[in-house]
Amino acid sequence: MKLAMCQVNTVVGDLENNVSGLLDIYNKYQSKADLLIFPELYITGYSPLDIVEREDFVQKQLDLIYKKLVPSIKSTAVIFGGISRHTSSGKGLHNSAYFVCNGEVKAIVNKQLLPTYKLFDERRYFEPARMDTGVIVYKGSRIGLSICEDMWSAGSGTNNLYDKNPVDNLCQKGVDLLINISASPFDITKEKKREEIIKTYIDKWKVPFAIVNYVGANDSIVFDGNSRLYSGSGKVIASAASFREDIVIGDINSTRYITEDAKSDLDNIHNAIVLGIRDYVNKTGHKGVIVGSSGGIDSALCAVLAARAVGEKNVTCITMPSKYSSRGSVEHSKKLCKNLGVELLTVPIEGIFDQFCNDYSAFTGNKPEGLALENIQPRLRALILMAHSNMSDGKILIATGNKSEIAVGYCTLYGDTCGAIAPIGDLYKTQVYELAKYINRPGEIIPKEIIEKAPSAELRFEQKDSDSLPEYEVLDAILKLYIDEKKPAGFIAGKLNYDVELVNRVARLVYVNEFKRRQLPPVIKVSDFSFVLDRRYPVVHKFS
User: Fold this and answer.
1) Are strands 288-292 and 246-251 parallel, antiparallel or unpaired?
2) Angstrom distance (rounded) from CA 291 to CA 300
3) Active site residue 196
4) pLDDT by residue (tens digit) across 329-345?
5) Active-site entry in 2, 6, 101, 111
């Protein structure tokens, strides 16, 4: 049997175009394969979130499936993900896989395991299947069909949350082929975990396994694709690309296998963020990106990723020097933008800054000083950046903060936190430097001066980040254990051989800045544990 794995990038809620896209692919490939397979919730896009609670949305999706899509499917069968209704108690909706052939819905398989951890909250919208289903007989083969999380009850990569294993249950009934349709979000650990789990099933049951995964980005979530067909011995028969649409055909009986080159974490992170920016801009109907270029490493990396996502002609960088800015910051911004071929505007803020301080003093009788004086500058810069965004023909501002700064609140609310999306908000500062060096491997794109100079917000004379924070190597080591692994301060101090008071100081900074993180723009998720999606802490609490 030949399978066409249709790894497609859809837009959430764009029901008509999603259905039309499926039919276009079907018409092109129906003669080349025996079965076409599309990802989880393909018709709605993943994830529609609370749009699912609109009756008109659900009904329109069902009308398009039954009145437009199903009648157009002929002898070559199709599997795709969508919503179905049910009349028993509970939510009233299932996350389903439709099996369609000869103008009829031959089977609907409902998802059994609904994830409610980290970024997932499927129990909010769907009712789990009440019984094991999913064995479909087609062209003489018994196909075991499952949906994404239903396979995540095996291997060391499992979440260990469930008391049943739907895929094992299917195999116990006797199957010749396993198919899983997925919307499995990217993080740097995910591809290895998926493969390990799939091979656990293959080792146990000795049957071919096809996984068809979603690709593209919606809001903060990026889907990497990497759809594959494995033989019953665990070898790869066919493999779709990473981070782009792809349709590949594989024969489950083939003995011709492929060997894939391993991709580095930095390569995957780079591609994920580029895709995240591109889809955010394109799917929201915008035309480009604006970056506040400080001459620092964060804004430089964001400018490079934005240019690769939407094209250099669609990126505008703006440098806004003050009296505290080093000469190098402006010159380095110019060099970066020349290397990238992007537009650079220079808007000095010293005059605006002085005028504001003078006016504030006249109104209140107090001269701004300390942190208040420093924060005026990023807020003035945000005002200029947002004004230029409003005046541009469809360009959005991106926020350039990294995960380390976001963690400890080393960012100015309504200043450098402004933007429609935060591309590197899930990268620790040390990872920012690693990715910058990775980008420079073929030749200098980010000026070496930017990479080598000590990081500074340049909000006062001779300021360095290390004046307020531990060195980033130290800070990030603490944050990874405290945030990602949820370890207490005493454990962290012992493991890293750091003073416990230092660890407590970092933990305190994380604690008091929760309110800032609540107001961040969407952060593109690339780690196993991101702030905006995976972490839900109250702003007001007393646990220390």
Assistant:
1) unpaired
2) 9
3) no
4) 899 999 999 999 999 99
5) 111
Catalytic residue list contains 148: yes
Instruction: Give tens-digit pLDDT for 246-276.
Output: 999 999 999 999 988 888 999 999 999 999 9
Q: How far is CA 100 from CA 86, 269, 429, in A?
A: 19, 37, 49
Q: Tell me how many helices (H) and strands (E) the chain has.
A: 17, 18
350 is catalytic: no
Per CATH, which fold does 270-457+515-534 belong to? Rossmann fold (3.40.50)
Query: Quick one: how far is CA 472 from the chain centroid?
Result: 24
Residue of 2, 122, 127, 148 marked catalytic: 148
Superfamily of structural domain 2-258: Carbon-nitrogen hydrolase (3.60.110.10)
Where do the structural domains in the chain lie, given as residue ranges?
Answer: 2-258, 270-457+515-534, 470-512
Residue 52 to residue 45: CA distance in whole angstroms: 11
Among the listed residues 410, 402, 380, the one whose alpha carbon sits nearest the alpha carbon of residue 300: 402
The label of the residue with tokens 């301080």 reads 357
pTM over 0.90: yes
Fold equal for 2-258 and 270-457+515-534: no
**DSSP state string for 127-150:** PPPSS---EEEETTEEEEEEEGGG
DSSP code of residue 251? E
Catalytic residue among 40, 122, 195, 458: 40
How does 361-392 read in b/e, with b if 16+ C-beta sit within 10 Å? eeeeeeebeeeeebbbbbebbbebbeebbeeb
